[in-house]
Design goal:
Blueprint: E1 4-5, H1 26-40, H2 45-48, H3 51-55, E2 63-66, E3 77-78, E4 81-87, E5 93-98, E6 120-121, E7 125-128, E8 134-138, E9 151-156, E10 162-166, E11 173-177, E12 183-188, E13 206-212, E14 217-222, E15 228-233, E16 239-243, E17 272-277, E18 283-287, E19 292-296, E20 302-307, E21 320-323, E22 331-336, E23 341-346, E24 352-356, E25 369-374, E26 380-384, E27 391-396
Parallel strand pairs: 3-6
Antiparallel strand pairs: 1-20, 2-27, 4-5, 5-7, 7-8, 9-10, 10-11, 11-12, 13-14, 14-15, 15-16, 17-18, 18-19, 19-20, 21-22, 22-23, 23-24, 25-26, 26-27
Length: 399
C-alpha cells in the first residue's frame, strides 16, 4: 500500500504512521551522517538502484518483554491508569499516571479506616531508571498553577523540563515543570467554555505534547475536545500557529462514527492523540479514530498520510508513535490500543511490515495500551489505561 499525498488524498488508502524525539548526541549523529555520505559516494550506483534492498525488512525492530520491569514500587504505592510515558536524554523514564483512577479496593490502605494493608496512591509523576527503580516523584495540586483533573500526556525536553497535559472536561491547559517538580509555565487555563479550535487563549483537552528543542517550540495534539495541532513558544507560552487535518482550518463539527466504507474524512476525529517530530523535521500526527497518521511540515503544510488497519472501528488503531533509532529513522513503531498490538511501519511508503504482541493480561500482552516512550537503545516503555493500569518494558532485539 502507498501513502496518500495531498493531490490524491481522496483517491486511495495507505498503511502507516509515526514519530518521536530527536535521539541523544544529535551532533554526533550529524557528523556520522556526513561520514556515511562520503562513503556512499564511492559505492556503485547499482547498489542504490537495487529494489530488493527496499523490500528487505530484516532490520525492522523486534521486541521482547522484560517481565521484571519495573521493580516493586516503594512506600506501599500503586499506580493508576498510565496517562503518558516519556524518556529523557539520559534514558530516564518519566511516567504520568492517574491516582484518582484507582478504586477503593486498590487503595485499601488509604481508606479511613484502612480496609487492607495495601495500597497508597503513588504521586502522579514518577521517574524511573532503565532498571526499573523509582528515582523521584512529584506532582498534583500546587501553588500558582492548575493541575489537570484527568492527567494525559507527558514529555521531557532536552533541557530536562517536564511537560504535562490533561483531558478532563475542564482541562484547557498544559504545564511545564523543572525535573524536580518546580512549576515553570502554564499555557491556557481551566474552563467550561464550549470547545472552539480557533481559540488560542485556552486549549481543548490536550492528549500529547512534544518539544522542538532547536526552535524552542512546544507542539500539542489538541485533542479530546479540539481537533487541531497547536504550537506555542516553549519559553514564554506565546501562540505561534495551528492547523487541522490536511493543514486546513480546524473544523469542530462532529463527523459521526468512523465508517471504513465511507470516503476519507477531511477533518480530524477526536481524539487527535499524538504529535511527534522526526529527525528530518516532519511532524507526525495520530488521528486515532480515523486510523491514520498525517504528516506535515513544521509550518503545518500537509505532505502525506498513512493508514494503519483502516478497517478498525471502536477506539481506532493509531494511539501513539515512535521512530526506530537508526539515523534515518526508517521505521515507525505504532502502538494500537484497540487491536492491542505493536505495528511496524516503513516510514518511506507507509507499508505495515510487522505486527507484534496481542490482547491479554500476561506479560508482553496489552489491554488498552495507551502511550509509550523509546530510549536511546531502542527499548520501548508502554503504559496501559482502563482496567489494566500497567507499565511494561520491551527490549529491542539485535538483528
Amino acid at each position: 500500500m502507498c501513502a496518500n499525498t495531498k493531490a490524491d488524498a481522496n483517491q486511495g488508502q495507505a498503511t502507516a504512521a509515526a514519530s518521536d524525539r530527536r535521539p541523544r548526541r544529535w551532533h554526533d549523529f550529524t557528523r556520522l551522517a556526513c561520514s556515511l555520505a562520503l562513503v556512499a559516494a564511492v559505492v556503485p550506483l547499482t547498489a542504490c538502484n537495487d529494489s530488493s534492498a527496499a523490500d528487505d525488512h530484516t532490520a525492522a525492530p523486534k521486541f521482547v518483554v522484560d517481565p521484571a520491569w519495573p521493580k516493586q514500587l516503594p512506600n506501599n504505592w500503586i499506580i493508576g491508569q498510565v496517562a503518558g510515558v516519556a524518556v529523557d536524554r539520559d534514558d530516564n523514564i518519566w511516567v504520568l499516571h492517574r491516582p484518582r483512577s484507582n478504586t477503593p479496593d486498590e487503595l485499601g490502605a488509604a481508606q479511613q479506616p484502612p480496609r487492607s494493608e495495601c495500597c497508597m496512591p503513588a504521586p502522579p509523576v514518577l521517574k524511573f531508571d532503565a532498571e526499573g527503580n523509582v528515582l523521584d516523584s512529584w506532582g498534583g495540586e500546587g501553588q500558582g498553577y492548575n493541575w489537570p483533573t484527568v492527567e494525559h500526556g507527558i514529555w521531557a525536553d532536552d533541557s530536562g523540563n517536564i511537560w504535562v497535559g490533561g483531558n478532563g472536561a475542564t482541562d484547557r491547559q498544559i504545564l511545564k515543570f523543572s525535573p524536580t517538580g518546580q512549576f515553570l509555565l502554564q499555557i491556557g487555563s481551566p474552563s467550561a467554555d464550549p470547545i472552539d479550535s480557533s481559540r488560542t487563549d485556552i486549549l481543548g483537552q490536550v492528549a500529547s505534547l512534544t518539544v522542538d528543542d532547536e526552535a524552542n517550540e512546544v507542539y500539542l495534539a489538541d485533542g479530546y475536545g479540539n481537533k487541531r495541532i497547536i504550537v506555542y513558544d516553549a519559553q514564554n507560552g506565546q501562540f505561534k500557529r495551528l492547523w487541522g487535518a490536511y493543514g486546513n482550518v480546524p473544523d469542530d463539527t462532529n463527523p459521526g462514527p468512523y465508517d471504513p466504507a465511507a470516503p476519507i474524512a477531511q477533518q480530524f476525529r477526536n481524539p487527535v492523540h499524538c504529535v511527534r517530530i522526526s529527525n528530518d523535521g516532519l511532524v507526525y500526527v495520530c488521528d486515532r479514530v480515523n486510523n491514520r497518521i498525517q504528516v506535515f511540515t513544521k509550518a503545518g503544510g500537509f505532505i502525506k498520510e498513512f493508514f494503519v488497519r483502516p478497517e478498525t472501528r471502536g477506539n481506532g488503531s493509531t494511539w501513539d508513535l515512535s521512530f526506530s533509532t537508526d539515523f534515518a529513522q526508517r521505521y515507525i513503531v505504532v502502538i494500537d490500543g484497540e487491536n492491542n498490538v505493536i505495528w511496524t511501519v516503513d516510514r518511506a511508503n507507509g507499508d505495515v511490515v510487522d505486527k507484534q504482541a496481542s490482547r491479554g493480561r500476561n506479560a508482553g500482552q496489552f489491554h488498552w495500551v495507551h502511550q509509550f516512550g523509546t530510549d536511546s537503545n531502542g527499548n520501548i516503555y508502554t503504559g496501559e489505561v482502563d482496567t489494566s493500569k500497567r507499565l511494561q518494558k520491551f527490549l529491542l532485539q539485535a538483528n
